[in-house]
Design a protein that fits this description.
The protein is of the alpha/beta class and 218 residues long. Helix content is 40%, strand content 22%. The protein has 3 domains: 57 residues, no CATH class; 40 residues, no CATH class; 110 residues, 2-Layer Sandwich (Zincin-like).
């Protein structure tokens, strides 16, 4: 079992992440020794092994699109059929029970739909609470579902399109509130609660189901 250890200035504690492809990485504060990382890994071996089993199960259920095969994919919390059909005129089509792609471009589908969705959600929610934001960017960072820069640029992970609508709305609110409070202070969480009263439930869901979306942390 191999581990990749990375140290960061901003890290406050050691974390382990098991990605959807089975890669195990450890992030730690800058001055953390290898021995400390190894001890942390040993104390969490049971969690790591269970996490790897979850990954194997998900890999067996969800399509590896690089193979260009039909299968099932998550979209707004539901498993839909994924069909590759080069005869369709558009790049993709969405039906009640399937996503039909013209080519092997599932990531492009998620990214395109995510841009449309997050632009719409931010435009809907922000004015209602008098929040002004800058640009909206879409990507697939390994460790974040969203972020808010000092210039009020909002970034969102397109893998969130695999989550239910309520989870997506919570992440949008989470980032919009950072424009008011650029931290995770009590005042910040009070603001989040005001806009999303059940945010604790949404956060718990996101943590519990992060494997289905991309990865899981401890």
């Amino acid at each position: 079992m191999q581990f990749k250890i990375q140290r960061y200035k901003r890290s406050k504690r050691i974390k382990i992440r098991v990605s959807i492809n089975g890669t195990i990485s450890v992030s730690a504060p800058l001055r953390t020794s290898v021995a400390e990382c190894n001890n942390f890994i040993l104390t969490h071996m049971e969690w790591i092994e269970k996490s790897l089993q979850k990954v194997k199960k998900i890999q067996a259920e969800i399509l590896d699109t690089r193979k260009g095969m039909d299968g099932k994919v998550l979209y707004f919390g539901k498993l839909l059929n994924l069909i590759i059909d080069s005869s369709i005129k558009k790049k993709y089509l969405i039906t009640d029970d399937a996503i039909i792609l013209k080519g092997n471009n599932l990531d492009l589908f998620y990214k395109t739909e995510a841009k449309r969705l997050f632009e719409s959600k931010c435009a809907e929610i922000a004015p209602f609470y008098g929040i002004k934001y800058g640009k909206i960017r879409i990507g697939a960072p390994k460790t974040r579902w969203g972020s808010c820069s000092s210039s009020k640029t909002l970034s969102f992970n397109y893998n969130l399109l695999k989550a239910p609508h309520g989870i997506i709305e919570y992440v949008v609110i989470h980032e919009l509130c950072h424009i008011i409070h650029p931290n995770h202070s009590r005042q910040y969480w009070d603001e989040v609660k005001k806009l999303c009263p059940d945010f604790i439930k949404q956060r718990a869901w996101l943590k519990a189901h992060s494997y289905e979306l991309s990865s899981e942390h401890i």
